[in-house]
Amino acid sequence: MPDLHTPTHPVRLVTASSLFDGHDASINIMRRIFMAQGCEVVHLGHNRSVQEVVDAAIEEDVQGVAVSSYQGGHVEYFEYLVESLRAAGADHVKVVGGGGGVIVPAEIARLRESGVIIFSPEDGQRMGLVGMINSVVADCDFDPWQAKAACLDDVLSGDRLSVARAMTGAQTGQLPEEMLERLRETAAFRTVPVLGITGTGGSGKSSLTDELVRRFRTDQQDKLRICVIAVDPTRRKGGGALLGDRIRANSLDGDRTFFRSLATRGAHEVPEHLADVIAVAKAAGFDLVIVETPGIGQGDAAIVPFVDTSLYVMTPEFGAASQLEKIDMLDFASTVAINKFERRGAKDALRDVGRQLVRNRGAFGKRPEDMPVFGTSAATFNDDGVTALYQHLRDELAGLGLPVSEGTLPHVDVRHSSGIRQVVPTDRVRYLAEITETVRGYHARTEELAEAARRLQQVEAVRGMVSTALDQPSGRSSGVETLERLYDEARRAVPHELADQIAGWPAVVESYSGDEQVVRVRDKEIHTKLTRESLSGNKIPRVSLPRFTDHGELVRFWRRENLPGFFPFTAGVFPFKRDTEDPARMFAGEGDPFRTNRRFKLLSKDNPATRLSTAFDSVTLYGRDPDPRPDVYGKVGTSGVSVATLDDMLALYDGFDLVDPSTSVSMTINGPAPTVLAFFLNTAIDQQVDRFIEREGREPSDEERAELAAYALANVRGTVQADILKEDQGQNTCLFSTEFSLRMMADIQEWFIEHQVRNFYSVSISGYHIAEAGANPISQLAFTLANGFTYVEAYLARGMDIDDFAPNLSFFFSNGMDPEYSVLGRVARRIWAIAMKEKYGANERSQKLKYHVQTSGRSLHAQEMDFNDIRTTLQALIAIYDNANSLHTNAYDEAVTTPTEDSVRRAVAIQLIINREWGLAMNENPLQGSFVIDELTDLVEAAVLAEFDRLNERGGVLGAMETGYQRGRIQDESMLYEHRKHDGSLPIIGVNTFVKEGSEASPREVELARATEAEKESQLRRVREFQAEHASEAPAALAQLKEAAVSGENVFAVLMDAARVCSLQQVTEAFFEVGGQYRRNV
């Protein structure tokens, strides 16, 4: 442990992940350590552009910015960041970065020459997390005022850097007295109303503040200059502070807003020099100042002396009505907002608070509903309750001198949110508790039935032996009569169906005992080979059966395991694997669509089945088009393929028959998944149209085109990830408000049902990215299954039948090195099947959980990269043993770059060697019967159900997300892994043990797969040409799309048409207008 540097100045830092980068696990660990070392951290979260980071650095007047970059384009991003800071006069700000092995030594050297402090994996191993942070804190421990003092004229003219520096001087007491007096005088002269916003912790003050600012900007057409001052508490121990309000703000773009975060730097609710900071804002020419304070208790009203009017924000859960008498701010607040109005009891809370205000103000002649109390839901986009609150505050502030016009927002007559649609209805919020009760009850019943079957078998055996010994008919002696009575009781305890299953077991054993099994399905005989012969001449059974003779053990086996293809599908959802199709599904995506198309053809060469998995570049993942701006340009075609239009999608899958039964396409896309899916389905349809034209020599009629579309939709196979719950919890490629994104998912599924899309999964419910964000295998599985059940409840609430949509749900897991990964699929299948059958009454097809496995990206290390293939091989082996339905094996160099042709060939070989060379892979249920596998299965299942209980206590998945529970758990588990990796208590070969010494330890040069300049320029040109070609059609299509969203139509139905003439970013921006932007969480 290095000697920790104790800052002599208040060190302020901005932390963020780079643009189009959702990998925020490491930067969250870093910001926690920064705080622990006494820094004030303005955390921006993931997906932050250079402009956003620069704006934050200037307005927050920080000494340094720390940015993680794991998604490529880092050279362009960091160099652009340094240049932008220099151009803004903030070249004193230190720029710190890291990206694991993704940033290779040559790039590190180049960035260091540009003035960026870059940490490599070797630095991390040598210095440790705390050592790296310590060095950054030491570098940033300087006085910004000494770097450049604020100039009065610049402050008065509104220069942002000078205003920020003056606020720093006001808070530290460094402003010269003469300058401070001038600022106070100017502030007193100007009429600038100050709105104070305070309330209980967790009431949504930051979100509500942002929604109010957004409405001010929209309603007043950006004519107002608004300054927001957000106060957060300083930690008494260590002196650090998380300044976490800016991350919630989506309304700060442009130069009409200014946001400053302040730490209290003391035990009080507000900083000592808050009045002077407000004076700086007034003197700088802002029209409105909003001051938001930290969460308070019942008795604190410290904000009141500093503001002209105040808003108190609370939630419906304040307890008994008598508790309202203890809330000090209800005596002082001009207005009260009951936020999160979608919660139970909100209307009662509105009434009770209104009554309390009548009493507090002595307004006994007024009705409670006439009091300035509003019910709001800041999390709901365009909430009318928030609009009502805004219009009330606007009018009040106008009376205090705010220069407002009539405004563009229509007047609302409500006083609280109306028409809130809950994703999961209130009466279904206990769904996870019901599932745990169902699964535990099922297992309890299993033990009862096993004991009953065993007892019947035992009594039957004794009955037979006694009868033989007495050599007389049963029933002649009292002992035999007693035995007969026991037999009758035991027989009644065993259900007829179970008794028939026991009686039929020998026939089942017989059917698996020969060389071939023949099954008749719809007058057709299906022949399946039951054995495979080894070189030694032994016949290895494809499925091995238990040799139990005890009926209790048989019953326990059937109900807990069963043979592959039989409920509860613990060993697999199909009786046998396909001989003609390995589970291999290889990931590809780099450069432009033409280059990735060539890679797909390489991967599928000589394979009887074409199973393509598509990686999109980060620009596409965040719903944007290629752009020449450096922080965008550097990521075009990097770490994935660039797809911005239907033309791109047509080029990407050119030469592949998307309706061929042996072709299957998986697309890893989430936030903009509806648009990319529309591109893909249109591509499948267009292929059929092109074939018709080629075959018939003419264009199809409207009726023929509809038939071709129906055929394509009925036969296309594959999956789109589209899992927005997981994105909020771990992966972070969220674009729109969660409510709108979930609505879009349901729209897609309804459209699938209507158009009979039965072979394509509408969602891949993903635990992989939860694991990559840092979760352990238990949390990965529990959160993923819980998300799956949440979709079930949401779709049921939309009126869909479970057997119409459940077969369109698929899952996606990671396989890592932990022991629990060996049983992940078994546990998932069993819990899902039991819940679907016993709780939801679903049919057999709906009970079958099908999942894809990708070997762990987190277990790939830049040090000793050749060892990565060993880890990947072990992870692939347990996936194949556990009957994963498809499998992607990572290339050994993916810790550093998009895989090269050679590394992909090795990754494919891993699967081929296991499936075709590895002897035990001849058998398809090798895990069954293992004591340790049985015990691990029960342990993991119990842990998952316990996690369901914890989620249920927090209001289910959505309630837990609101408090950041899943994200917090993932961060904690990630931090534990990183600490144990760094201190060596978690051995990682070639990284922290068995490490090469001397020159051999230096990282080797690897071939980097990057998009070429020609490919990037080509993509820029192609999207411009597409937009120009459809310039006359796109506006009307986008207008129809927005109208469908506002009116409640099925948006995906309209999107299928819009995707033909609009680019990805055009659709994204249209959805922002009607669905709102995603609001990040700390």
Automatic annotation (TrEMBL):
<dbReference type="InterPro" id="IPR052040">
    <property type="entry name" value="GTPase/Isobutyryl-CoA_mutase"/>
</dbReference>
<dbReference type="InterPro" id="IPR006099">
    <property type="entry name" value="MeMalonylCoA_mutase_a/b_cat"/>
</dbReference>
<feature type="binding site">
    <location>
        <position position="245"/>
    </location>
    <ligand>
        <name>Mg(2+) 2</name>
    </ligand>
</feature>
<dbReference type="GO" id="GO:0047727">
    <property type="term" value="F:isobutyryl-CoA mutase activity"/>
</dbReference>
<feature type="binding site">
    <location>
        <begin position="202"/>
        <end position="207"/>
    </location>
    <ligand>
        <name>GTP</name>
    </ligand>
</feature>
<feature type="binding site">
    <location>
        <position position="962"/>
    </location>
    <ligand>
        <name>GTP</name>
    </ligand>
</feature>
<feature type="binding site">
    <location>
        <position position="611"/>
    </location>
    <ligand>
        <name>substrate</name>
    </ligand>
</feature>
<dbReference type="GO" id="GO:0004494">
    <property type="term" value="F:methylmalonyl-CoA mutase activity"/>
</dbReference>
<dbReference type="GO" id="GO:0003924">
    <property type="term" value="F:GTPase activity"/>
</dbReference>
<feature type="binding site">
    <location>
        <position position="248"/>
    </location>
    <ligand>
        <name>GTP</name>
    </ligand>
</feature>
<feature type="binding site">
    <location>
        <position position="761"/>
    </location>
    <ligand>
        <name>substrate</name>
    </ligand>
</feature>
<feature type="binding site">
    <location>
        <position position="293"/>
    </location>
    <ligand>
        <name>Mg(2+) 2</name>
    </ligand>
</feature>
<feature type="binding site">
    <location>
        <position position="292"/>
    </location>
    <ligand>
        <name>Mg(2+) 2</name>
    </ligand>
</feature>
<feature type="binding site">
    <location>
        <position position="1081"/>
    </location>
    <ligand>
        <name>GTP</name>
    </ligand>
</feature>
<dbReference type="GO" id="GO:0000287">
    <property type="term" value="F:magnesium ion binding"/>
</dbReference>
<feature type="binding site">
    <location>
        <position position="810"/>
    </location>
    <ligand>
        <name>substrate</name>
    </ligand>
</feature>
<dbReference type="InterPro" id="IPR027417">
    <property type="entry name" value="P-loop_NTPase"/>
</dbReference>
<dbReference type="Pfam" id="PF02310">
    <property type="entry name" value="B12-binding"/>
</dbReference>
<dbReference type="GO" id="GO:0006637">
    <property type="term" value="P:acyl-CoA metabolic process"/>
</dbReference>
<feature type="domain" description="B12-binding">
    <location>
        <begin position="10"/>
        <end position="147"/>
    </location>
</feature>
<dbReference type="InterPro" id="IPR006098">
    <property type="entry name" value="MMCoA_mutase_a_cat"/>
</dbReference>
<protein>
    <recommendedName>
        <fullName>Fused isobutyryl-CoA mutase</fullName>
        <ecNumber>5.4.99.13</ecNumber>
        <ecNumber>3.6.5.-</ecNumber>
    </recommendedName>
</protein>
<feature type="binding site">
    <location>
        <begin position="339"/>
        <end position="342"/>
    </location>
    <ligand>
        <name>GTP</name>
    </ligand>
</feature>
<keyword id="KW-0170">Cobalt</keyword>
<dbReference type="GO" id="GO:0005525">
    <property type="term" value="F:GTP binding"/>
</dbReference>
<feature type="binding site">
    <location>
        <position position="292"/>
    </location>
    <ligand>
        <name>Mg(2+) 1</name>
    </ligand>
</feature>
<comment type="subunit">
    <text>Heterodimer of an alpha and a beta chain.</text>
</comment>
<feature type="binding site" description="axial binding residue">
    <location>
        <position position="23"/>
    </location>
    <ligand>
        <name>adenosylcob(III)alamin</name>
    </ligand>
</feature>
<feature type="binding site">
    <location>
        <position position="232"/>
    </location>
    <ligand>
        <name>Mg(2+) 2</name>
    </ligand>
</feature>
<dbReference type="GO" id="GO:0031419">
    <property type="term" value="F:cobalamin binding"/>
</dbReference>
<feature type="binding site">
    <location>
        <position position="850"/>
    </location>
    <ligand>
        <name>substrate</name>
    </ligand>
</feature>
<feature type="binding site">
    <location>
        <position position="206"/>
    </location>
    <ligand>
        <name>Mg(2+) 1</name>
    </ligand>
</feature>
<dbReference type="Pfam" id="PF01642">
    <property type="entry name" value="MM_CoA_mutase"/>
</dbReference>
<keyword id="KW-0846">Cobalamin</keyword>
<feature type="binding site">
    <location>
        <position position="245"/>
    </location>
    <ligand>
        <name>Mg(2+) 1</name>
    </ligand>
</feature>
<comment type="similarity">
    <text>Belongs to the IcmF family.</text>
</comment>
<dbReference type="GO" id="GO:0034784">
    <property type="term" value="F:pivalyl-CoA mutase activity"/>
</dbReference>
<dbReference type="Pfam" id="PF03308">
    <property type="entry name" value="MeaB"/>
</dbReference>
<keyword id="KW-0413">Isomerase</keyword>
<dbReference type="InterPro" id="IPR036724">
    <property type="entry name" value="Cobalamin-bd_sf"/>
</dbReference>
<feature type="binding site">
    <location>
        <position position="717"/>
    </location>
    <ligand>
        <name>substrate</name>
    </ligand>
</feature>
<comment type="function">
    <text>Catalyzes the reversible interconversion of isobutyryl-CoA and n-butyryl-CoA, using radical chemistry. Also exhibits GTPase activity, associated with its G-protein domain (MeaI) that functions as a chaperone that assists cofactor delivery and proper holo-enzyme assembly.</text>
</comment>
